[in-house]
Amino acid sequence: MRANPNQRHLILFARFPQVGRGKRRLAAELGDGPTNRWARRHLAASCRRLYAPGRWRLVLAMEGAPPGWSAPLGLKWLDQNRQAEGRKELGPRMIACLAAFAPGPTLLIGSDILNVERHDMALLFTALNRPGSLLAPASDGGFWAVGHRGPALARSALDGVAWSRSDTCSAAVRALNARLVPLIKQDVDQAHDLPPQTE
After folding, report:
1. Element (H or E) spanning 25, and its range?
2. Domain segments of the chain: what residues?
3. Burial of 85 (0-12, 13-18, 19+ CB in 10 A)
4. Is 186 helix (H, G, I), strand (E, B) or coil?
5. How many CA atoms does the CB half-sphere of 15 hold within 13 Å?
6. Residues 30-80: tens digit of each pLDDT
7. How far apart, in whole angstroms, are the C-alpha atoms of residue 34 and residue 164?
8. What are the phi and psi torsion angles at 192 (to 5°)?
9. Which of 35, 64, 71, 193 is the most exposed place for a label (fewest CB within 10 A)?
10. What is the second-level CATH architecture of the domain 9-193?
């Protein structure tokens, strides 16, 4: 079945929150237990906040999810909206997620971004009224959102991009010939990235 070229898809790109997996810099400061509890709460809250039937379809692309993954997170209502990430490198995984819904307008965002609201998604989807790719920058030099509308990107499109660097976003803009939307957000890598009074 061909994808609806006008259907909007919002992909939340995540790793299943599990002690000892992911967020290792944060866990080194807070401990494994508090880090895992924060990751679970943040993922569930992000899904609830960004779920907007009628405006876009929310899809959870989650690596490492075990059977029955949704119940512990309180996300059983998202069971039918999960997309397997696969085991490729980061760039090809992201491109494959976007390609699954081509040529329609599709956004992919990280699951550890602070203060992301529906109006932010609406702004980015409006920018995708024009075909092509876009990126929204993170405060550390990376990007927190990548969007595309049109024929699927080549799986190698991000192969030359170095991750976790101060120039990652600018390198990705060049690689994708993307528009940069000046909507800056912060992701969480270390304890000082967390809001006050966060465990």
Report:
1. helix 24-30
2. 9-193
3. buried
4. coil
5. 13
6. 788 887 888 888 888 998 999 998 999 999 888 776 666 666 666 765 655
7. 23
8. -70, -10
9. 71
10. Alpha-Beta Complex (3.90)
